[in-house]
Structure formats: C-alpha cells, structure tokens
Design a protein that fits this description.
The complex is a heterodimer.
Chain A lengths: L11 H4 L6 H20 L2 H26 L7 H19 L3 H20 L7 H25 L6 E2 L4 E2 L2 E2 L3 H23 L2 H11 L1 H6 L4 H27 L1 E2 L6 H14 L4 H24 L4 H4 L2 H19 L3 H15 L13
Antiparallel strand pairs in A: 1-4, 2-3
Chain B lengths: L10 E10 L2 E11 L4 E5 L6 H8 L7 E6 L2 E2 L5 H7 L1 E3 L12 H8 L8 H6 L3 H19 L15 H14 L4 E5 L7 H18 L2 E5 L3 H7 L2 E6 L2 E6 L1 H5 L2 H8 L5
Parallel strand pairs in B: 3-8, 3-9, 6-7, 7-8
Antiparallel strand pairs in B: 1-2, 1-4, 4-5, 9-10
Chain lengths: ~350, ~260
C-alpha cells in the first residue's frame, strides 16, 4: 500500500501517545527548533522575560493541578514561592549550601508546608479553604521577615549564581536552556499525572467528592497528596526564582504575587495545562506590554510614573473581561481559533445558530 | 472470594437504625441478601430506601445495628474501604463526573484495580503505562457490555440523561463488585431505555452472579425481574417475599394506593 488514507489506532498503547500524526510530529519539531533558536536571535530583555515565564510556568502548573484539576482553592501560592526562595537563601547564607542541596531542601520544605496547610482541605471547601491557605502566606511572610530583621538582612539576601557541574549559571542565555528544560519537565510531569489514575482521581474529587469516595478513591489521601505535590513544585519554582534573581527579599512575595498566579490559571483557562502555560506567558509579559504602550502613546509624564497602579488597574480590567466574556480563558480562544481553521471554509456555528 | 462459606448470606443488615437528631430515618431494618440475588427495595417517597443504600456504602453511619458483608462488619471501614471490599453503587441523579469522558468515568470506577503510584504516573513509566493499557482493555469490556461504544470519547455532560444513567451503571460494574446497589436506575428513562436497563440487570444477574439491592418505583419492572421484594414505609420494614405475593399484599397496596375507605 503506497499511501495510508488516515491515521488508524490499532492498539491501546497507540491511544497513549502524546504525539500521534505526522503533522503533530512536524509541529513539535518546529516548536522545539523555535524554542532552541530563540535565545540566539533575541535581545537580552526578551530572553530575560522568557526566563521569568519558564519559572512562572512551573508555579502556574502547580497551581493548575491544585485548583484547576483537584478543585482546591489556594491563596498561599506566594507564601510557598517565598518558602522555597527563603529556604534557598537561608541555607546559602548560613551554611554556604550549593544548588544541589538547596533545591531538594526547598522541595522538602514546600512539601511539608503543603501537608500541613492541606489538612484543612479535609474539612473545608471553597472560600473557607482559601482563607486557611491565606494563613500559610502570612506565616511564611512573618517567619521570613523576622529572619531578615534579626540577622540584619533587612534589605534581602544576596545569592551567588548556582554552579552546575562546575559551570556557573550567569548568562541569561544559559539560564534560558536550564529553565526551559525544567519547565518542560514540569509540564510533562503534570500531563502524565493527568492522563493516569492519579489525575482522574483528582478530577473525580473536584467534580463529586462523595461519589469519588464511594468508587474506592481515598479522597482525603488524594487531597493531601495534591497539596504536597503542588507545594513541592511551587517551592522549587521559588528556589529557582531566588537563584535567577540572585536575591531573596520577603517583600517580593506579597499577596500581589498570589493574585498574579491565580490570574495565570484563570486567564489561561482552568482545567487545562496549556492554559497554565498561556496564562504564565500572558501575566508575565503583560506589564512589559503596558509599559511599551505607555512609551509609544502620547501620555503625560506624570501618569507614566504611576506604572504600578496602571499595571494593576489594567490587569484587574483584563481579569474581569475574561471572567465575563471568556470563562474558558486563553485556551478557550485558542480552541475556537483552531476549530475555525480546521473547519474552514465551513462555519463552526451550530445548526440553526444563526450567522455572524 | 471466600468460596468455602458460600452458604452464608452475602450481606446482612441486623436492626439498623439511623437517626438525624430527633428524626428517625431508619427504624430497625433487618435483611439478608444471598449471593447473586436480586432484591428490590420498594416503598413510597421518603420511606428511607436510599438511606439504606447510604448506610451500606457508609455515606451514613448507622446509629445502631450491624451491617455485615461477607462475614465482615463494615462498621470500622471508610466509604472507600467499603468500595474496595466489593460493594459498588449507582446514584439517583447519575453522580457522574461531568468534565470527564465516558471512558474516563469508567476508568475512575476501576481506580482500585490500578497498582501504580503518583511518581510512576508522573513519569508515565513501567507499571503506570502497563496499567493504563490493561485497565483500558478492561473498561472496553464494560463499554461493550453496555453498548456504549459510540459514546466512549464523549464528555458525560453532553450525553442525554438516559445514557448518563447507563454510564453510572456501567461505572459501578467496572469496579467488579460482588454487591451492587442500584438507586432508582430507571427514574427518568423512557420505555425503550427501561427495556435496555432490564436486559442489563438480568444479564448481570445471570452472567456475573452479582448480588443486587435495587431501589425501584416501576412496579412492572420489579414484578418481572426481582427475586424478592422488600417493602419499607416510614423507615420500617413492612413486608418481604416473592414478588407476586408481595404485590398482592393488602398492606403494600394500601401504602401505594391508599386505603379503600377513601
């Protein structure tokens, strides 16, 4: 047979492939190439933004697992990032620990915090749970603040770049490849988790916890598990953030940061890992876009000094617009656009749905 | 499992009481279910039929009384522990996971049959992958049994209610239980769907030998299918026995149709 007329699945293993058709293989290859070439042809600023996006992807994916898939609302995200960054800072400053010590240590601290602050989820849901996770934020902020003042680091802790195999990570370009690899690994971990039993159990708990329990899923164990997994990932992101910035200050981890991450999963699209990526990309680049706009548009200098306020006002507006007009987030828009081109020249509108 | 003691009942309820504060929901329910027996549980609305099922699956804790499944008292277990012992159930409104596909819903039902863990799942390696393939094959058998092939990949929320009920039934059977609790499986179904349902119930009874407690309002179905009927009213036992004898019982007729005096 010269040509295959289509793509046929002949066993269940084929159903499990992430990349199936030749077209998908080509797209994946193009994507890998583009990501690989990007730092070679882009200005330093763009590479720096990309690096921030990669770290944010790890954090956003963790929150997406917890909130988007397991249905557990958390407002402790900045606290967990801070815990990772602080663990890194303290171990580096006090013991001179290397990257290979601080990274696992941050993961362990994050996991333990997740376990403790996951406990209320066994009894509470929704907003009540959100309030208890807020406590996590303030506990970490308090401990961090106390440490910084008592030890006289009130301006923050300086951290020297991590050495990986005797090679110090300093250049933005080098960071880019390391962070890209970590972000891809985090994404693959989440995608795998979601297409196996663990992920289905989480979604079952999100949709109907009592039914999930009566189907033999130990709901409480899974709730704690996802808090631990998510917190561990977030704390690792915090550790990376500390090294990448070369600086840890507890003030950098305010509630605004939590809002940023909640915005990532909402704007990206709850219940989609692609949404976590798009959301991270959107939220991280947003202030740069606003800043660029302000520079281009003829706006009085006085207003341009209020960047922070303008940023958050615009941000709030975008959030509201998304919640009202596109609750499925950027992923919803992406799916519509894709379907439009897949079906073109036919309209995607349902039968009898009218024109437009 | 325990083939040696096959003569003892599959499930025994002995003097089960359920109180919510001052409200008496179940007032001393006792019943035995044999292996492979299809027991219909009937009674007017609010009689406590669903509460009996909820007590067996431990969603409610009986205030008093014992529930023994295959010789084991369920009192010390958790709801998921009960499910893992081999008791599956359906829910009146389906109780499906709306954002999952039919296939995923069935795979959730097979949760306890997997042996992977979170780390293996995350790297999709070894047992995790082998489990996915093996359990998929098992879920396909259930899909075939319930003739759900064409709905396999659809989101449950997009399916008509009648199909959703069948998916709920299929998900319970995917657990490979030895006792199946059916909570009004026919409610909201049209005649054709009810005939399908009757066929599935009979096939499960004859081919798989699973004991069933079946809460039902459709008396025609009950009369045709059930081995035995257990009648409840106001949380208490009224009568039990052969379908023909029970449906002719004046006490049962009175509960369902009111007394002749009116």
């Amino acid at each position: 047979m010269a040509y295959a007329s289509g793509y046929f699945k002949t066993d269940y293993a084929m159903e499990l492939r992430l990349i199936e058709t030749r077209w998908q293989k080509v797209s994946a290859a193009v994507l890998v190439l583009a990501l690989g070439v990007f730092p070679l042809i882009s200005p330093q600023v763009a590479i720096g933004i990309a690096n921030q996006v990669f770290i944010a992807i790890v954090g956003a994916a963790a929150l997406m697992l917890l909130t988007g898939y397991a249905g557990q609302i958390s407002l402790g995200h900045a606290g967990l990032l801070a815990a990772g960054a602080l663990t890194t800072g303290v171990l580096f400053k006090e013991l001179g620990a290397t990257f290979w010590v601080t990274l696992p240590a941050s993961a362990v601290v994050g996991g333990l915090l997740g376990l403790v602050f996951g406990l209320p989820s066994l009894r509470l849901k929704g907003l009540y749970l959100a309030i208890t996770t807020l406590a996590l934020h303030f506990v970490v902020a308090f401990v961090g603040g106390e440490y910084e003042t008592r030890r006289g680091f009130s301006t923050g802790i300086l951290i020297s770049p991590p050495a990986i195999g005797g090679f110090a990570l300093q250049e933005q370009q080098h960071w880019y490849y390391v962070l890209l690899a970590i972000a891809v690994a985090a994404m693959l971990f989440c995608i795998n988790l979601l297409r196996t039993r663990t992920g289905r159990a989480l979604m079952a708990i999100r949709d109907h916890d009592i039914v999930a329990e009566s189907l033999g899923i130990p709901v409480r164990r899974y709730k704690l598990l996802i808090f631990v997994v998510s917190s561990t990932m977030t704390s690792v992101a915090g550790c990376l953030l500390a090294y990448y910035r070369g600086f840890v200050s507890i003030e950098a981890f305010s509630l605004y940061l939590t809002i940023d991450y909640v915005a990532m999963v909402i704007i990206g699209g709850l219940g989609s890992m692609l949404g976590a990526v798009l959301g991270a990309l959107f939220v991280i680049t947003f202030p740069y876009v606003i800043e660029g706009l302000l520079r281009v548009l003829p706006i009085p200098a006085g207003i341009a000094n209020e960047m922070f306020a303008i940023n958050y006002a615009a941000f709030g507006l975008v959030m509201i617009l998304f919640l009202v007009f596109e609750p499925l987030g950027l992923v919803g828009i992406w799916r519509r656009v894709r379907n439009y081109f897949l079906l073109w020249p036919y309209r995607q509108t349902a039968v009898g749905g009218g024109g437009g | 499992m325990a083939e040696a003691s096959d003569d003892r009942p599959l499930l025994q309820l002995a003097g089960v009481h359920l109180h919510f504060g001052g409200l008496v929901v179940l007032n001393g329910i006792s019943l035995d279910l044999q292996r492979g027996e299809l027991l219909a549980l009937i009674g007017p609305n609010g009689a406590g039929k669903t509460s009996v099922l909820n007590c067996i699956s431990l969603l409610y804790r009986p205030t008093q009384g014992r529930i023994v499944f295959e010789g084991e008292d369920l009192a010390g277990l958790s709801p998921h522990g009960v499910a893992r012992r081999g008791i599956a159930r359906t829910f009146q409104l389906g109780g499906l996971f709306p954002h999952l596909t039919v296939l995923q819903n069935l795979l959730v039902g097979r949760h306890a049959h997997f042996s992977s863990n979170v780390v293996l799942d995350g790297v999709f390696w070894g047992r995790a992958r082998a489990n996915e393939i093996a359990q998929r094959a098992a879920a396909e058998e259930i899909i075939e049994f319930f003739e759900l092939e064409r709905h396999r990949g659809e989101l449950v929320s997009k399916l008509p209610f009648g199909v959703q009920k069948i998916v709920g039934f299929a998900r319970a059977l995917a657990m490979e239980p030895r006792l199946l609790l059916l909570d009004e499986p026919s409610a909201g179904l049209n005649r054709e769907a009810r005939e399908d349902l009757s066929r599935f119930i009979l096939r499960i009874k004859h081919e798989k030998g699973i004991g069933m407690i079946w809460v039902e309002h459709d008396m025609q179905m009950v009369a045709d299918l059930a081995d035995r009927i257990y009648v409840m009213d106001y949380g208490a036992h009224i009568a039990d026995g052969e379908p023909r004898q029970i449906l002719a019982d004046p006490r049962v007729v009175e509960i369902y149709l009111g007394s002749k005096g009116n």
